[in-house]
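In this supplementary section we document a worked example of the pipeline. Step one takes a protein sequence of length 486 as its only input; no multiple sequence alignment statistics are reported here. Step two produces a three-dimensional model, which step three serialises into structure tokens for compact storage. The input and output of this example are shown verbatim.
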Amino acid sequence: MKGTFCLVLHSHLPWLAHHGTWPVGEEWLHQAWAHSYLPVVDLLERFAREGREDVLTLGVTPVLAAQLDDPYCLRATHEWLGNWQLRAHDAARRLPELGRREHRASAWALETFETRWRHGFSPILRSLVDSRTIELLGGPATHPFQPLLDPRVRAFALRTGLDDTALRIGSRPEGIWAPECAYAPGMEEEYARAGVRRFLVDGPSLRHDTARARPVGDSDVLCFGRDLEVSYRVWSPKVGYPGDPVYRDFHTYDHASGLKPARVTGLDVAPEDKLPYDPALAARAVARDAEDFVGHVLNRFAELERRTGAPALVVAAYDTELYGHWWHEGPRWLEAVLRALPEAGVRVTTLRGAVEAGHVGEPVTIHPSSWGAGKDWHVWNGPQVADVVRGNEEVLRELLELDLRGGARNPVADQAVREALLALSSDWAFMVTKDSAADYARHRAKTHADRFAELAAALRAGRGADRAASLRSVDGPFGHLDARGL
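The serialised model returned by step three reads:
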């Protein structure tokens, strides 16, 4: 056996229900659902039918799990899939090959959605967990940047998220995907109190010593470091397989239909000059890049074994949405790699399986870090997002001043806390810093913060039930959330 390889996928989108359409809002959810979640889950279910265990570790942010089970989102996505097929038929009059290709893809997606996803994601996810096909990672409820939260709110958000996962799949995850892989000293003790046994950090957090899981500080909570040498082979800030000239271009649209007809062609090629997408060329590139990745993993094992004197662990971690949504050919590449690695003598397993196999090293001290640019916190608390940070600080201050103790459960308090957690999502600052729909992100952060402030004032005045009920129908994930727990 050459070594142990763990693939970790993290599924995450901010809470988007009832929040607009293209180019932001619900369109993101529909696209990711159609092009990433459907094919990746189909791949996992096929592995399950083959009896494969510990195929990969899958993180699902609780706020995304809520959307993938939500009746409104299920209806809206079904309609979107039908509209995708209509757009394919319309495009076929002008672009016959594109229309035929998109018809086949949309027909498969509609059939899969209607036969496997009618009751949401949780029944499917539970079957994959129960069969040990995957290890599931949980996380805080709304994907906040944890180091910037008051520890009391941080603990409450994590507990809410883990409770939500337990309700949906019948068991509580032992591991989490720490949002943005962000860490501050002492968080491991909070994880231990919440029953979390393992979490992810980025490679530089461990000075790139990622060949073992490591206990953090004096705790028995293990951290796993993402191996950037391997991970960046796929998804580098500057280079990586998805940028190959023959793969389908994510950014170039046929604006009449909203479909994507072009290949990447070249990074500096204008959209109107890009060549038509050729599936046969892309298929050959998938085979080539899967073979290259397996060879790179084997070389990495050899390098680490020379350095450590023992069989090594390699953890490659990515956003699930890379596979199919951002990188159209990603699911086919993923399947090719997951089949080829065991044939090459590599043990493919989960984070749990790596611990069971003994890939645990000496305790480590971790400095404040994240997987963002610079591997520090500036994406979420830098000068570009000073207004968002101030807004978050005000939400936290007012949240902790509320008297939420004792008495009967109060739906106004529950909805106020929901809005606060949604305001504190890390996505808003990330989108502003990266200038990715920054106006939308600022609007969403302020909307939730304003709703929270309104409900907090109503709570202090002993009113607000009608307003809380109306917002609950719009922004109401985590129905089990009990504000008294904060």
